[in-house]
Amino acid sequence: MPDTTKSPIIHPVVATPQAQLKRKRESVDLTQAALRQRAEATASAADDVSGDPSQPAAGEDRERKIEDEELDSDEDSMFEDALDEIELNPFVPEDDHDEESFSEAAAETLRARLREIGVEEFFKETINIRPRKLGTAFGIDPQWGQMPEEFYLRILGLAVVRAYNKRQKLSEFNTIDDAANLLQKCRNIMIVTGAGISTSLGIPDFRSKETGFYEKVRQLGYSEGEDVFNIENFDHDPTMFYTLAGDILPDLKRYSPTHAFIRMVQDKGRLQTNYTQNIDNLEQLAGIEKERLIQCHGSFATASCRKCKYQVDGHEIFAAIRSQQVAYCKECIKKIATAQTSPAKPTKKRKTKPKNDYEDSDSDPADTIPQPGVMKPDITFFGEQLPTTFFDRFTEHDSQTVDLVLVIGTSLKVAPVSEMPNYLPHHVPHVYISREPIHHVNFDIQLLGDCDHVVFELARRAGWVLEHEMIPRGFGVTVAEVAESGHRWAIRPVMANAD
């Protein structure tokens, strides 16, 4: 008898910006005393070398700077962005015997010690290690940026906190059958999805080196692919977006087998929430309930005027996007037309012109003509905050009740979604499904291949039947361990002889 018990529906609540993965700020605050101690120790060593009593004490100077460092949001973002880059491209010493860095084995020993004793005790215990050498245990190049010591200490402190919070692989979960068993027994499954679940429909992902949307944008001569989704660029000149966005506009006529898999998890009463980074809105087409869907970056479902905020169904601007024409607000146009046909109100003339009034003789009369606002799809551009439903839903409810996390079709390179696995309780199993392995997050099981193929096999092993028009009769896969990893598996399609 099928299990029809559903996870309780939690209606989205409005979040405050302060709810953004609160652990990050709280952990930074915890390290202040330890950073001061390290700054004093570093400064003391510098004083011993310089021995110049005429200069202000470096320890006092550094301590004052650190105590005054209440980072504003821009500075905080700068350091977090730097850490993201370090995590994705960590420093690896060329020589294990280099005295200026730790070997990988020694670095792992240090990180294990950190997890054992905590951040503050770790700083106390390692206070006699040179900061730039200690940083190599956390992937920081000792020559990175040649930054001032206080900035390096800030990066080091944040890196240590991030390493302490980083989830570790659970040893009891390793194979695709382990993942299938989890799928069968868990009742609050969080599914985090990215562009990889839609590529089989011809919608490109964003970051693939040769086929991604951003690469195509760069090939057209733009400096950075992300410029297309920069809100300042859009407000200055929306033509770039309207010229290129047709490539990622969904046809909304069908969804992928992976979307069907998520729907099946929902129908079996196991879906807690689907957090999607995709903007194609195909989750709703697949029938994912609105109450169980968080569109982290918005979607093409609606569009809003940048001037008057009038909102319309996203379909209303699809024709403009496909024809590479900027869509203007019909409500603005209507109001402008009404104002132009209405009798002008009489204005009171001044009898005399003030002595010092200045009149710009070069002003363009066209500048005073009202212009309609530009319609923008309600997707989150760089420079805009994520939808307000994301943070509180994740931190205050889902993180407390989730019992399994499936991450499908995303490289987890964009914050804050990339931080979700490390925020969640570390005893919750995590399964990763995508074409390429991931290294900066410790997943318990990695199933590597086309998302549609992987979820088909995962469902089959769980005793479920995934039916979809894109899955041919006789379809099957092979499963092979990757490089004796014990937890990474390559899933490749094979075709059996159809009857």
From TrEMBL:
Residue segments, region Disordered: 1-76, 340-373
Record key words, sorted: Metal-binding, NAD, Transferase, Zinc
Residues bound to Zn(2+): C305, C308, C329, C332
Organism domain of life: Eukaryota
Cofactor requirements of the protein: Zn(2+)
Active site (UniProt): H297
Annotated Deacetylase sirtuin-type domain residues: 169-465
Record GO terms (molecular function): histone H4K16 deacetylase activity, NAD-dependent; metal ion binding; NAD+ binding
InterPro entries noted in UniProt: DHS-like_NAD/FAD-binding_dom, NAD-dep_sirtuin_deacylases, Sirtuin, Sirtuin_cat_small_dom_sf, Ssirtuin_cat_dom
Family membership noted in the UniProt record: Belongs to the sirtuin family. Class I subfamily.
Stated name of the protein: Deacetylase sirtuin-type domain-containing protein
Species in which this protein is naturally found: Acrodontium crateriforme
The organism's taxonomic lineage, starting at the top: Eukaryota, Fungi, Dikarya, Ascomycota, Pezizomycotina
